[in-house]
Structure formats: structure tokens, C-alpha cells
Amino acid sequence: MARRSDHSREELYGLVLAEAQKIVESEGYKALTARRVAEAVGYSPGTLYNLFSNLDDLVVHLNARTLDLLDQSLAQVSLKGDPEADLLALAKAYLGFLDRHPRLWEQLFEYRLADDCELPVWYTDKIKGLLARVEAALAPLFRPQESQKRDVAVQVLWASLHGIGSLAIGGKLEVVTTRSVANLARSLVVNYVAGLKSTRGSS
Amino acid sequence: MARRSDHSREELYGLVLAEAQKIVESEGYKALTARRVAEAVGYSPGTLYNLFSNLDDLVVHLNARTLDLLDQSLAQVSLKGDPEADLLALAKAYLGFLDRHPRLWEQLFEYRLADDCELPVWYTDKIKGLLARVEAALAPLFRPQESQKRDVAVQVLWASLHGIGSLAIGGKLEVVTTRSVANLARSLVVNYVAGLKSTRGSS
Q1: Can you give the pLDDT at residue B2?
Q2: Which residues of B touch A197 (CB under 8 A)?
Q3: Among A7, B22, B44, B150, which is 20 to 30 Å from A142 by CA?
Q4: CB spacing of B191 vs A199 below 8 angstroms
Q5: What are A54-112's pLDDT values in tens digits?
Q6: What is the ipTM of this complex?
Q7: In a mutagenesis test of the B interface, which of A166, A169, A179, A186 is the best target, namely the one with the most B β-carbons within 10 Å?
Q8: Which CATH number among 1.10.10, 3.40.50, 3.30.750, 2.40.128 corresponds to the domain A9-52?
Q9: Considering only CB atoms, which chain A residues are within 8 Å of B192?
Q10: Residues of chain A with pLDDT > 90: what percent?
Q11: Is A152 in Cβ contact with B184 (below 8 Å)?
Q12: Where are the alpha helices (DSSP H) in chain A?
């Protein structure tokens, strides 16, 4: 195997993740092995282990890139201060990302890291960053002292949209519905937001 | 290997599925192989293939049992005609099932059948039966001619609850929240139903 030494550590890091992404996007996350990635970049598997402690570690870094990509999609939405319209736009951007990168998204949620693999803080911060976009869209519906209620709403919308997307990607939604995913997302957002408005002020 | 011939075809069918369920519940769906099941029941793998055309077929039958079990849990809820209360009770029963049988539930949604494996009608009918319970709880909110809107609401609640459960089981929800899954399900149901009520009559 050719051992190329014309890449800096940073270049090799980018190269490895780009190839890993290609493998996942074309064949799904089960095709991702250290050997496959090493072959694709033309280095020995040993060189990979200078960069990543194991395959799980590589996956965490790859998933971090996926979170960045998703964040870039959501960042296209400029909030107008109307929670319903803003959340519909975010949901559309989220489902658009899922449509373009189904297998990256799948890896994000379906690949199971070893139980003792704790996610690094810089990783969970990326998730918090995504949720902060939903939080900003929901903010007009809550008083400053209602941050707990607002956080629950953020998490409900995030998890629910995940459910709609997950059943769609897994091919399990067609069993349930022939209607479009966008339609379900719309009903979720419109009614949940209307519900938040109508119960506002009640305990 | 002992070849027991003291079981009828029906008995063997029940035996095989019971052992397959045990393997999945104790070790997860990835541990499920024809060889493991054959060993557990004390028959040759060939005998299994007299009953099931392949492992996917066995999984479909096992998943059907899981759907039956879930249906039995939801059947414990007697509807009172109050959509919010009834849906909260159904959500609680659903999450209770998920809590008791996380790995069966996981197999239901995460195991991917081969692309050419079409689900039999008797299987999709079981899913329709589950959705019919949600539909019955939502029915008071819709006029008879609004069956399409009602179906969308059924699917939104089903997929959203799936999302909340799925992130919780996958250990991905703790990244997002430390709040209980029940809390999120409650917020989903209460606000979505309030939204349906508040937008009632509007187009």
C-alpha cells in the first residue's frame, strides 16, 4: 500500500472524514470500517489510529460534520419573529437536509456508540446550537421566566420531527401513511404552536 | 444435535418465536440468527426453513407478535370520549410498553428488511389496528367528513411519540434533555390537541 506522507495531520484529518462521508453516503453506515477508509485515503489503518482512537471516535467526528451541515441548512432560515412561520421554515430546512443526506442522518441517530463512549462537550455543544435555533423561533411565545416550558417545547418539536423523519427514512412511514412528510411536519408545527398559544397563561 | 419430532408444526412455530423473542429481549436484534434460534429450540436450522422462508420472514412474524403485545397494552385503556385524557392514557400505555420491551420495540423499527421484502397484508392490518385506537381517541375532534384531517392527526401523534421514544431508547435524548420522556409526551398531546381544538372550523 502506498504510504503518502505529503499530508499534514490537519489535511489527513479532513481527507479521512471526507472519504468516510463518501462511504456512508453511498453505502450506508454499516459499510464504514477503518480498513475501508484507510484504503480510500491510501494510508495504512495504523495511520488512522494516530488521528482517531477507534472507529467510534471517527464516527463521532463524522457525525459532528453532519451536525455542522445540518446547522448550515438551518442557518439559511432568517427568523421573522412569527413562531409558526419560523418553525415551518426550520422544519422545511430540516426535512430538506434529510432528503439530501439520508444516510448521514441515519448514521447520526442509528449508529450506536459503545456504552462507555461519552460524547465530548464540543459535540454536545453542536446539538445545543441546533436546538438554540428552534428555541429562538419559539421565544416570542414565552415570558423570560418560562424558560423551562420553552425548553420542553423545543425538545418536543425536535423529537417529533425526528420521529416523522425517522419513520420516513426507515421506509416505515409508508405503512402508516401515503401522505407527504412535509404535510405531517406542517400539522405538527401549526397545531402544537396553536396549542402553546391557547394554553398560554394557564398553569 | 437432538432432533425432536414431538412438536406439531403449530407448536414449533410458537416455540421458535418464543425463543427468538428471548434472544432479542436479552441481547438485542443483532444477536438474532437462524442458527441461534435453531440451537435454542433443539432443531436443525433446516427445520426452521420449513416454517419461515428466511430470517426476514421470521422477523416479520416476531414483529407481528410485538405489535400484538403493544396492542394488548393499548387495549387496557378504556376511552372516555375526552380526546386529551384518552390520548394521554394511550401515550402512557405506549411508553410503558416501550419501557418493558425496549429491544423488541427497537427491532420493530430498526431492523431493516430486504428491499424486496413486502410486508404481508395481515401485518399492515395490525399496524392499522394500532392506529385505529389513536383514531378512536381523536374522533370527537373531527366531523365525519374530516376523515383526512383526522388521519393526518393520527399519523402526526404516532410518528411524534415514536420520535420521543426512539431518541430515549437510543440514548440520544439525554443529550437533548434530562426531562422525562413522559413529560415530553404530555406536552405533545396537550398542546397538539389544544391546537386542533383552536384551529377547528378554520380551513
Answers
A1: 45
A2: 198
A3: B150
A4: yes
A5: 999 999 999 999 999 999 999 999 999 999 999 999 999 999 999 999 999 988 887 77
A6: 0.88
A7: A166
A8: 1.10.10
A9: 188, 191-192, 195
A10: 66
A11: yes
A12: 9-27, 34-41, 45-51, 55-75, 83-100, 102-110, 121-138, 147-169, 173-176, 181-198
